[in-house]
């Protein structure tokens, strides 16, 4: 049995779609999967069970990346095709069942929209696949028996980024309650991400630099070692929630009603103002601190 799964280009949306993949893996235990996604999200599927092929859709002029996908898939007969991009390509392939997500923005959680494609309720929770090698590797540089608190100061849009200077007073409050804790700063590859994280790396005491050079599965393994993640609405926030790490999302102008972190231990705080227009600078340090301490205090030792 062969299943083609076409998912998002952006990391956060791709993470949210993994719940559907996990459901399909469970229901169709004999199926082999081909996953098509953008380059940023490709690492999510590196250790996915029964992955036969990963097709990375690198954007090309005149939408030729869709032609590339068709060429790669047209020679096969697919038992099931799941297209979360709503593309015309799906109709040009030989497929038994087709599940296609219509485009356009609409109210409600993104996870619920995704679940409707397969007629699932409640939505399946996102998952992350890591390897034993990933987990062993991160254990070589993360201190054992130390409470680790992950911080995610970056995002793909400046309007979603909580000011870097807020993290020092936040950390001072957290470390007063948990003096043995150490901060772990996560960020993606590239100079822009590095620049956004640098103020935290320069000022937080005992900071562990866990960004820039790690694969997505290694980053997930790092998050699995952390007692809490605090960060902007971003792909890293969704990765943290999917990894099972207690996750506190920071929201300003992005819509928490659509992109709240999805997981068993998740919470969020929102800047004052109308949804979709609230400036992230209006999110007070005291509000974030109170929510973070509430989450930490509720966790088992």
UniProtKB/TrEMBL annotation:
<keyword id="KW-0328">Glycosyltransferase</keyword>
<protein>
    <submittedName>
        <fullName>Glycosyltransferase family 9 protein</fullName>
    </submittedName>
</protein>
<dbReference type="InterPro" id="IPR002201">
    <property type="entry name" value="Glyco_trans_9"/>
</dbReference>
<dbReference type="InterPro" id="IPR051199">
    <property type="entry name" value="LPS_LOS_Heptosyltrfase"/>
</dbReference>
<keyword id="KW-0808">Transferase</keyword>
<dbReference type="Pfam" id="PF01075">
    <property type="entry name" value="Glyco_transf_9"/>
</dbReference>
